[in-house]
Design a protein that fits this description.
Shape: rod-shaped
Largest sheet: 8 strands, antiparallel
Number of helices: 5
Radius of gyration: 64 Å
Structural class: alpha+beta
Distance between the termini: 167 Å
Strand content: 15-25%
Length: about 300
């Protein structure tokens, strides 16, 4: 063998003194093996102890769950017993519900009472008819327009002052006030002191379309005027009241009442323009040269021919 060789490559014998040098290494390995075995045994013991402890805990948990399940079972048994007792008031309720319809049957007597029927008799009592019979007689004398058809609807722009003599504009009022539905207001015209009580002014009514007329209703706050109604088939009023374009639809009449119905001639002929011509003022409206009086047309209505 060479100097550094420890084993014979042919027979396997060690070099002299090689076994003595390796003896300590076997002892140390034996110590390591012994320590490893002890550690393995300790780990096995600890694992066994841990396994045995977990098994005990599992058994305890199962016992607790079984004990908790027992109180839940009596709770549902008590709840179904209560509806069984509640079944008794159910037949009682329909019995009480049958009784109320019997009560309104007794209340049907006021429905059959003859008291509301007797109220119809005062409605047909003769005292209500007597004023009705008396009112037409009075209104027929004062307002015969109640027996006529409905009046024509006049626009406020359809009225104008008819002033062929050329009096100042401030001598006249607003023509639209004669058809505003308010009898406290109206169109007015100043009385000329130089010719009073005579007058020569009027109120024009433009119907825009030809209409057959039967009457003119006049409401005035200055009764006693002398008026006359004229009609024209032209679209505009003639320049003078004496123009042949005008047709006299009434005669000169003294309007003594505040409310007067003037019957018109030629109800079969249609006219487009009418003139309420004033030819005389009442004595109370003449005034003086320093304070001239005025006449008024508070409301005017036209009635169509039937």
């Amino acid at each position: 063998m060479e100097s550094a060789q420890e084993w014979c490559l042919q027979c396997g014998a060690p070099a002299p003194g090689s076994l003595s040098t390796h003896t300590p290494s076997w002892r140390s390995s034996a110590v390591v093996l012994a320590a490893t075995a002890l550690l393995a045994l300790g780990a096995a013991g600890a694992a066994y102890a841990a396994l045995t402890k977990t098994k005990v805990r599992h058994v305890i948990l199962v016992q607790v769950a079984a004990a908790a399940a027992t109180p839940t079972t009596p709770a549902p048994t008590t709840t179904p017993t209560t509806p069984a007792t509640a079944a008794t008031p159910k037949p009682v309720v329909p019995k009480a519900a049958v009784k109320p319809p019997k009560i309104p049957l007794t209340a049907a007597t006021p429905k059959a009472t003859a008291t509301p029927k007797t109220t119809t008799t005062p409605a047909a009592t003769t005292p209500t008819t007597t004023p009705k019979s008396t009112v037409p007689k009075k209104t027929a004398a004062k307002n015969p327009a109640a027996q006529l058809p409905p009046a024509l609807l006049l626009d406020t722009n359809s009225l104008a002052t008819y002033n062929p003599e050329g009096y100042p504009a401030e001598a006249f009022g607003d023509p639209s006030l004669a058809v505003d539905g308010d009898t406290s207001t109206g169109w007015s015209a100043q009385v000329n002191p130089t010719i009073a009580p005579k007058m020569a002014v009027g109120l024009l009514i433009n119907l825009n379309t030809a209409e057959k007329l039967s009457a003119l209703e006049l409401i005035t706050s200055t009764p006693g005027m002398t008026v006359q109604v004229f009609g024209s088939t032209a679209s505009t009023a003639p320049a003078a009241i004496t123009d042949p374009g005008w047709t006299a639809l009434s005669t000169h009449a003294l309007q003594k009442e505040r409310h007067t119905l003037i019957k018109l001639n030629n109800p079969t002929k249609a006219f487009r323009v009418l003139a309420l011509w004033i030819t005389g003022a009442p004595p109370g409206s003449i005034g003086t040269p320093t304070a001239p009086g005025r006449v008024s047309v508070n409301e005017v209505e036209l009635f169509p021919a039937t």
